[in-house]
UniProtKB/TrEMBL annotation:
InterPro entries: HATPase_C_sf, Sensor_HK_TwoCompSys, Sig_transdc_His_kin_sub3_dim/P. CDD domains: HATPase_UhpB-NarQ-NarX-like. The chain crosses the membrane at residues 21-40, 49-69, 75-98, 110-128, 148-170. It comes from Streptomyces avermitilis. GO terms for molecular function: ATP binding; phosphorelay sensor kinase activity; protein dimerization activity. The keyword Kinase applies. This is histidine kinase. Residues 207-272 form the Signal transduction histidine kinase subgroup 3 dimerisation and phosphoacceptor domain.
Amino acid sequence: MTTTGEAETGALTGPWWWTRWRSAVLDIGLALLSAVECVIEGARFARDAALPLPVGMVFGLFAGLVLVLRRKWPIAVVLVSIAIAPAQMGFLMGVVGLYTLAASELPRRIIGSLAGMSFVGMLIVTYVRAHQGVVRGDLTIGDWFVPFLSITTALGMTTPPVLLGLYVGARRRLMESLRERADSLERELMLLAERAEERAEWARNEERTRIAREMHDVVAHRVSLMVVHAAALQAVARKDPEKAVKNAALVGDMGRQALTELREMLGVLRTGDGTVSRVRAVPLVAVGVAAAAAASRAVEDPSDGPCLADLDVLVGQSAAAGMAVDLSVEGDARSYAREVEQTAYRVVQEALTNVHKHAAGAKTRVRLAHRSAEIAMQVENGPPPEPGSAESARLPSGGNGLVGMKERVSALGGVFVSGPTDAGGFRVSAVIPAGAEAA
């Protein structure tokens, strides 16, 4: 079926080949007008050709009704109008047929060929009729005016409908192209919205994991030391009051340090208006702004978070809690990226926390090695001197410490290994590239 670009064939709502009922009513109305015209002109042709009047009228009726097929077969309509042109019939059919043909999706060479045929046919018919009128004396004009009249009439009957049809067809194709482009953009926007929602959900999950890991690092170590000191304080409170006072002071210091780190973390989670951001309710833009603000604060303020220079204090706190711990440093100490130093510190901190939880009183060795392209750390403890000593301290464990350490190290492109030793202890090892940056 030949379409005129008026609507897609997949959206048919009218009868037969029409896309809409309005189009069907218009074509049927034009076909009736063409049939009336052709009946009148057919009666005149039958009288001039000495034919029975009903024959000319019936012929004109069927010829005029062909216009109802203009949307489905515009070529057939134009050919019929050219065929009946010698009988001076189908002028309305020719004009409407040429317009429909030019507005259709047919190749331009076909449209040009049929338009040329219609022009030549109209030119010949007009010339013959005008010349016959001059010969009979019906027209009192000069012979020079006959060609001018023929050319003008032929141009007037063919050029305007063809040009109008070409313009309407081009406009329809442009509108369809714009509509398709708008639909494509809408689909792309929907895909982008879905991907943005996926990225937002991924960012929320990553933020939850990061906050959980930071809370675990901050709370677990400090609180574990507080529990150990509290147990020691309970044991020596009556026997050695001076030692009890010292342990109580250490417990207070640990608690204040834990509160300070928690306040710093909550400060990062606060928004610009002073309210705490809720992870589930925060939109994608707010997540990006909060993450950028937190990252900028971490880079601009070097005092945020622990570093390798604080390892001596960390080991000293564990030693004050009764752990036999030894720190050894290999290589020339130097500064690293902030993420590298914080990750190395957290790995050692979590390893010492696990010793307090699972092997209280075990001898522990902390090794830190500065290499040319990486930094390595290892925390190894022997078996606890007294079986069940960890259970006596009543230190709960969630099992997330090793997972958090591995996530931190892997995020920087490092390697993390942990597992029991042959002597019955436990070893935690990590290697981080010196120039690593957080993803």
